[in-house]
Amino acid sequence: MDNRLGSLSSTTLLNGTPTPMALLSGTGQVIACSPAWEQRVGPPGLLLERVHEGDRGELSARMAAARDAAGSTSATARLVDARGKVTSMQWTLWRADDTALWAAVKPDREAWETQARILVDVFQTMDAVIWATDKEGVLRVSDGNGLAHFGIKPGQIVGMTMRDLYGEGSQVLELCRRVLAGETIRTDTVADGVHWIVHYAPHRGDDGEVDGVQTFGINLADHVTLAAQAELLRTCIDSMPIIIWAFDKDGICMVAQGGALAQVDAVERNGVGKHMLELCGSSPDVREAFQRALAGEIAHTEQIRQDRIWRTRFVPQKDVLGAIIGVGAISEDVTQQRRVDQQLREQLRLTQQQQESIARLSSPIIEVWQDVLIVPLIGSVDAERAAMVMESLLAAVVERQAAFAVLDLTGLDSVDTTTAQHLIKITNGLTLLGCRAVVTGIRPPVAQTMVGLGFDLSQVCTLRSLKEALRWCMSEARRGSSDARLGSGAARLGSGAARRG
After folding, report:
1. Collapsing DSSP states into helix, strand and coil, what is residue 270?
2. What are the structural domains, with CATH classification, of the chain?
3. Which of 22, 178, 265, 322 is most buried, most CB within 10 Å of its CB?
4. Residue 499 pLDDT more than 80?
């Protein structure tokens, strides 16, 4: 046997191997190591200090077992380098002498491949781009679905330089120079109408030195659209005289937005975090409305705060499973609206009074002779006006003890079924009070209409004009007086005869 094998030193062996290998003491101290070990694991020192704390116990046990084993022992433990990067490594341990061990490491290829497959699968579903260059700016990687936005296929521009693609003095080239100097950069950019978030990071070799640039860009068009819509909505809300609230189940404000916040002394920043009762009022109505919203109902309430009238609508807020997680509310200053409503009601009241006054003026009750009242009807007679005429006329008959009431229809526009019914009701009411009704001024078209409608006025005295009506009333009044005197005289004669007898 060649004795030269025994004379070979461990230093010669370690310096000549490309494998990351080291000689360990019984305490796990690295006594000597290969240059590849220093690049991968680090310089001599306590080995377990460079192993992930979750794997130290397992690796220590495998080291103890290797000292007693006839062959090599394998272990898997994660290595943490000086930059904090964690890498899963395969460890091979075997006995050097009674206390020392040989150790060799290599990346856990299976774990690395599994991780790589997951990352690739995720990456392939994203609208994203990844590319990497060497120190000279030559593209080594160009991949991702996002390349389609630029009309480029994966791998198509590999081998080209960044200077060729973007030109000297471009922003991208300047960013690459900064990254090669060790800087990590995040940018927002718009290219061909697409909004990109791009991360630039230095790529380091096994020696820790920067040897290229690696980037990852993702299309955030959907997110930007949502953000733009949210900003537009916020701007609109801030310009409106309303407040949008969001409260949790305990009533603590989570969102406060709207142009009317200043009116309740709750600008956006100091409104959030306050209690609902402080922001929306502490009246029992507000408490009840909030509790009803927590129970799943929609509730409304109004309260006066600082001389302003606020109307608040409370609605339940639910999560994706339908569970109530809080209450949303919309508060609106309705002070001006209430004032306008009050003004409209007052105006309507005045209008009604004016209409009643006009109606009375168009149907005045005139006492033209003792015990004789005249009501000229002008225009049209609807239910409301007929009721008003009947009420006023009957009251005047009772007050003035009138015996005759003349309804003059000379100024009546037309007569339909409803108008004729109202006239009949008025004459019937007069009859019940012992007042004789007289109707005058029925024009031929009106008479024809009333006959066509089949109304019976045989129980009502109808005359052609007011002149005839007045003569008739005076005649009837004199006849009534004569009858009364005759009756009185007959009563006296009868009384005298009785005495003589």
Report:
1. helix
2. 10-108 (3.30.450.20), 126-219 (3.30.450.20), 240-333 (3.30.450.20), 364-480 (3.30.750.24)
3. 22
4. no
